[in-house]
Each structure stands twice: as C-alpha cells, then as structure tokens.
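Action item from last meeting closed. Structure (146 res):
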C-alpha cells in the first residue's frame, strides 16, 4: 500500500473530498453519531492515507500539531476501510512516525473509542482519562510518550 502525507494546502479538491466522504460515511453515518465531522483543525493537520493496489483509499488519519485540539500533538480521524487487514495498524504507525519526525512530538494524544482501547495499547498508548461521551460513543483519552 502506498502512503501519502500532505498538509491541507497541498491537497487537491478531489483528495479532500474523498477523505471527507470516507470520514462522514464511517463516523457520522455508520456509527450513527451526529456531530460536526468537518472542522477547522483540518487546515492545521498533516493528512495521511494509504491506497490499496487498485488505487482505492484503504486507510486515513490526521496528525495535528500541539495546541490545535490538545496541548500535545495528536492523531485523530483514524479509519481503515477494511478492518482486520492491517491497514489500521499501518496508518497509526505512520501517523506516530510523522508526529515524531515532522512535529517533534514527544507526547501524542488521541481520543479513542473505548472498544478500540486494546488496539491502541498495542501501539504503546496508555489511558489518561475517565470514559466520556463523544457524539454518543464512549471515548477515552490516551497518550503515547516517547
């Protein structure tokens, strides 16, 4: 799978549209979570995605500098189109690498769905908050420290 990393101003309209379409399909429609999916943080983010051998979007994540959504660098909007195939792990590993190498992050914060806690723990993240509701879905804050 081919990885692409771009800042907001580098995205084509077609690339941004494809990402938003996927994010809304998963986070709003599939998960039945009515919330403001498109936000101004996109303008500050590094957008990462993987394409499969046919050129279709396989996974996506965004990496945000410290101070945009959290005091530390953060990763969010993590999606693997086909679950259980390794694309989610790969996009997270790349997002961690980008946060550390491009943003100099020593600490990375995520807001993880509670049901995905084990996935993120395998990547080194540790829970740092009590459970909270985000768009009708239980979440926890987690951090990875280098």
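Sequence:
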């Amino acid at each position: 799978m081919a990885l692409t990393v771009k800042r907001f101003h580098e995205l084509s309209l077609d690339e941004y549209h494809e990402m938003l379409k996927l994010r809304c399909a998963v986070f709003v429609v599939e998960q039945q979570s009515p919330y403001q999916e498109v936000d101004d943080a996109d303008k500050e983010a590094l957008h990462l995605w993987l394409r499969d051998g046919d050129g279709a979007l396989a996974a996506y994540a965004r990496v945000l500098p410290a101070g945009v959504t959290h005091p530390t660098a953060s990763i969010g909007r993590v999606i693997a189109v086909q679950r259980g195939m390794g694309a989610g792990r790969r996009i997270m590993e790349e997002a961690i690498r980008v946060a550390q190498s491009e943003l100099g992050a020593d600490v990375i914060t995520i807001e993880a769905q509670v049901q995905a806690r084990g996935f993120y723990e395998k990547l080194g993240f540790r829970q740092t908050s009590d459970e909270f509701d985000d768009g009708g879905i239980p979440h926890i804050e987690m951090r990875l420290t280098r």
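Note appended to the action item: The CA atoms of residues 53 and 69 lie 33 Å apart.
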